[in-house]
Write the structure tokens for this entry.
Amino acid sequence: MLLGVDSRDLLILTLSLGLAVGGEVVNTAIEVLCDKLHPAHDPEIGKVKDLGAGLVIISGIPAVLATILILGPRLIALL
């Protein structure tokens, strides 16, 4: 409220953050399942886990960009 974020921008921030958190939840589920099904080290399982980690990065990028684009100018204006 202090930064004057309107409802549209708040919705964008909320959805992008939800996407990032959702990506992390899916990645955690993938890793737990892989560890349960194949506890020993396996290069193929490692590839699956790497793809899950990639999901986290890809889903986090919009959240970071939305935060910078929406809140950045407002924070600079406060300074």
